[in-house]
Amino acid sequence: MPNTTTSASEESRPRGSGRASYAGALLAVLLALILILFWLLPKDPLVRARLDAWLHAPPASRPAPDWASMRRSDPPAGFEMPNHGVGAAVRAAAGPLRVGCLVVSVGDCASCLSADVEGWERSARRRGLTTVFLTTGKPAAARQFRERFRVAAPFVVDPGGSLSTALNAAWNGRPYLFSRNWRLVWSEPDAAGQRDPFRDPAFQRAVERGADQ
């Protein structure tokens, strides 16, 4: 008769343990091969050159804005602040002008604005200019701007964006200088670095001429 007895060690061995051991050995071999490849590949000059190019590639840069194209819709010099609608509200908020008015279009996002509007307001006050901020946001957005930038100048809400469109407020924080007769005498040419308009010679000349226009 065939011997049908099995040893205790054979009975206690878990089924499938042989397959698990085999899979573990294959995984160990695969990991060893990967490590060898990572060690050998950089020694190849071509591979090393490509790896270096990939690791030290400069970050993708965004194209510079085309300021000239953005200015094509600018109002002409001498554009008169409208005497109706939002324009009339700007005039009323500014009151009688002694030298001129700095109108700053701030859009509807306080956290998106990087311009030093608080400093601009102080500089305008020293030169006898009145400052008015124009926002396309809701009145709550105007309060957020005031709290964030600690400015005292009035805010005028342009809910439909009609005046912002007429002024071509192509970027947030774009300043415009109006003479005391509410004629446009200067507008920021670009937003590169949101520079201080009071350092712009063209702006300074416009301020000097503003009271006469």
Defining traits:
about 210 residues; alpha/beta; 9 helices
Number of domains: 2
What structural class is derived from the secondary structure elements? alpha/beta
Oligomer type? single chain
Question: Termini separation (Å)?
Answer: 124 Å
Q: What's the CATH class label of the largest domain?
A: Alpha Beta
Q: What is the CATH fold-level name of the largest domain? A: Glutaredoxin
- Assign the CATH architecture of the largest domain: 3-Layer(aba) Sandwich
In terms of DSSP E residues, the strand content is 5-15%
**What's the helical proportion of residues?**
40-55%
**CATH homology group of the largest domain:** Glutaredoxin
* Rg measurement, Å: 35 Å
Number of strands: 5
Task: Output the helix-strand order.
Answer: HHHHHEHEHEHEEH
State the strand order across the main sheet.
3-2-1-4-5
What is the average of the pLDDT values? 81
Any low-confidence stretches, pLDDT <50, length ≥5? 6-10
Number of helices: 9
Largest sheet entry: 5 strands, mixed
Shape: elongated
Description:
The protein is an alpha/beta fold and 213 residues long. The chain has two domains: 15-55; 73-210, Glutaredoxin. Helices cover 43% and strands 13% of the residues. The chain has nine helices and five strands. It has helices at 8-12, 17-40, 45-55, 67-70, 85-94, 117-126, 139-149, 162-167, 201-210; strands at 100-107, 129-135, 155-157, 174-179, 184-187. The chain has a five-stranded mixed sheet with strand order 3-2-1-4-5, sandwiched between helices. The N and C termini lie far apart (124 Å).
